[in-house]
Design goal:
This protein is of the alpha+beta class and about 425 residues long. The chain has 3 domains: about 90 residues, no CATH class; about 100 residues, Phosphorylase Kinase, domain 1, CATH 3.30.200; about 200 residues, no CATH class. Helices cover about 55% and strands about 10% of the residues. The chain has 18 helices and 13 strands. The strands form 4 sheets. Strands 1, 2, 3, 4 and 6 form a 5-stranded antiparallel beta sheet that branches. Helix 1 packs antiparallel against helix 2 and helix 2 runs parallel beside helix 4. The termini are far apart.
């Protein structure tokens, strides 16, 4: 993929890029209205989604930063967006144009007063991975092979303006009103600011590694603080296949079950024991070694789970709570799904929606062992999301419901379910993590 020599960093440059993208989307809608004369509603809508997804992604990928990160986040919510958006936005996870050599050198000169070739014994100027916020280069020092993650210029400085620019697109796609969206966008802004602080990521990575040390066959890279700063982080180069590559190989069912169990234990231990979780579960953040060991990478997005959210959220796994009208309503109120201004009809509608959603979403927790290779479970999950996104009555309520913590916790579970389905683990012990407490 061709590298880029410049990223728009000023508000004017980035706004111009968004405006140009908006103009393309506008032309797509004109084409859509014309197509409705000669094509069916379904065909015209599918073509509109493909065109819009292509143009929005092409506009965002050269901007990089938080605008592209929002697209990546939205791509993980399969069922809530048209498939054309999911497929195109998912490219932002690990397939975007990398920075050129001069821009990389400029970053090192700014923060280390040295060129990368002066700091390391060897440094490969060609990126081995490029995503929304930074890219990774191979290097050597101390007789070791290292991975050096470098943040794109201007990413942290442009977060506020970027979110303001992409907000109209996101609200339109997710059907949330502007007033309801403020608390959610603030949550995303706060997490993005954390993700752009590599010194915080280094500390978080070390804490999670220490906290999960008892889980077998789970490994983390070691970090090098003397070769890291707020915009550069240096760690061990970990050898292995990304989960997406590993899942496509001819693996035995025993191997798939083993890796699936480690991944599940890792997440359950974080959530239920550490009360903080690696909230960016996409295939590019995990490797599988030649010995079938799971390697966890990239701890920039770590979500703390406050008890005020944890308790009512996981209480909804309990069948008693789900079937007890009074208790169910109480938990939905605690989670801010139900609001004091709701009419009885609105309350009943939301209760019906969540009861149906939870009947599918909590299935893995209703048995001692769960089969994540079952396509029926995954299709039920996606199908329900698609139905809810098209529910006219639900859309009238503008979607601005629920605690801000839903954003990253739900993102974590949807992402985890996707990874587990790709791995096709048939015999995952749901509460296996408890033995490591």
């Amino acid at each position: 993929m061709k590298s880029i020599d410049k990223i728009p960093t000023s508000k004017i440059e980035r706004a111009s890029k968004i405006i140009a993208t908006g103009a393309k989307v506008g032309r797509n809608y004109l084409k859509y209205y014309a197509n409705r004369v000669t094509k069916s509603q379904k065909e015209a809508t599918e073509e509109l989604n493909v065109d819009n997804a292509e143009d929005i992604y092409d506009g965002l990928k050269t901007m990089k930063g938080s605008a592209l990160k929002v697209a990546q986040m939205m791509s993980m919510d399969q069922g809530m967006l048209p498939q054309a958006y999911v497929e195109k936005f998912s490219l932002s996870q690990f397939s975007v144009p990398p920075l050129s050599g001069p821009l990389i050198t400029k970053t090192f000169r700014k923060y280390f007063k040295k060129n990368p070739t002066d700091l390391y014994d060897t440094f490969d100027s060609i990126s081995i991975n490029a995503a929304s916020i930074g890219q990774v280069h191979a290097a050597t020092k101390y007789g070791k092979k290292l991975a050096v993650k470098i943040q794109y210029p201007g990413v942290s400085d442009s977060i506020s303006s970027d979110l303001a620019l992409v907000k109209p697109f996101a609200l339109k796609l997710l059907n949330i009103s502007g007033s309801d969206a403020d608390v959610y966008f603030q949550e995303v802004k706060d997490k993005l600011l954390e993700e752009t602080d590599y010194e915080t990521e280094l500390k978080q990575g070390q804490k999670i590694a220490d906290g999960c040390a008892k889980i077998p066959n789970l490994f983390f890279p070691s970090y090098y603080p003397d070769l890291s700063c707020e915009k550069v982080i240096t760690m061990d180069f970990m050898e292995g296949l990304h989960l997406s590559e590993y899942s496509k190989q001819e693996n035995s069912q025993e191997q798939l079950n083993s890796v699936s169990q480690v991944l599940w234990d890792f997440y359950m231990f974080q959530i239920h024991v550490l009360k903080k979780v690696h909230a960016d579960p996409h295939p590019g953040n995990f490797l599988v070694s030649k010995n079938e060991e799971l390697i966890a990478l990239d701890f920039g997005c770590l979500k703390e789970v406050p008890m005020s959210f944890y308790q009512p959220y996981f209480a909804l796994i309990d069948q008693f709570v789900l079937n007890d009208k009074k208790e169910f309503r109480k938990k939905l109120t605690e989670l801010e799904v139900l609001r004091p201004t709701d009419t009885e009809n609105e309350i009943v509608k939301m209760e019906d929606v969540f009861r149906e959603l939870l009947s599918i979403f909590t299935k893995p927790f209703q048995s001692e062992v769960f089969d994540f290779s079952d396509p029926e479970f995954f299709q039920e999950l996606i199908g329900l999301g698609q139905r809810l996104s098209q529910d006219a009555e639900l859309r009238k309520q503008n979607g601005g419901r629920g605690s801000k913590h839903f954003i990253y916790i739900n993102r974590t579970f949807f992402g985890l379910y996707n990874l587990m389905f790709d791995l096709k683990g048939e015999k995952v012990i749901v509460n296996n993590y408890k033995q490591y407490i």
